[in-house]
Amino acid sequence: MGLPVPDVKFLFALFKKYKIKGKILSLGSQDVYINETELKKLTKKYGFKKIKKSILKSKSAEFNKFRESKNFISPESMFEAIGIKKKNYFDVDKFNFDRPKILHDLQKPITKKIKTKFDFIIDGGTLEHIFDIANVMKNLVKITAVGGRILHIIPCHNYVNHGFYSFSPTFIYDFYILNNFKIEEMYIAEIGLIKKRFFKYNHSDSVDGYYLNRKKRT
Which domains are assigned to the chain? Predict the structure, then answer.
């Protein structure tokens, strides 16, 4: 559940393009792998207002075991930099060790605690770690506001032993189309050691045309 620099840049561009506002929900406690200096550069590049001071430490207990994490910003700081007030940022988790705002197992029916309709939901690598995907996806539909958006950043290929599942792009595409969502953007990202290559996904095309390196992760 972490956002490296390419994913953070993608998120900034997305919020700028679609002028996303309102209530934000993160599936799990989101880690963000950029420091305060990088945050300021991105804020300036994409034309967002400067924030006074970033919260440097993530709430994630596992993340904070790493020495490098002390320099990274919190997800609240990242979203504040792109125009979301801290009171409108929520995270949901089954476990309490990361102190989520909403303590709930998304495999179970929605309760009053999470009946809020969210304007933007981000899954930065959580879905593959949840066994009952069907119920999670049904719940996401229920808690998304009319006109709201859902962003999944999930493994597709070559993530052996990372979570329970890897996902074919058609899983995401077909599910949301059948549930009356509009697919605004969809990409396959080829992941190298430092950079990512993004290929715009067209459901009607063969993936053979993307020239992906089958030895790399996507």
Answer: 2-154 (3.40.50)
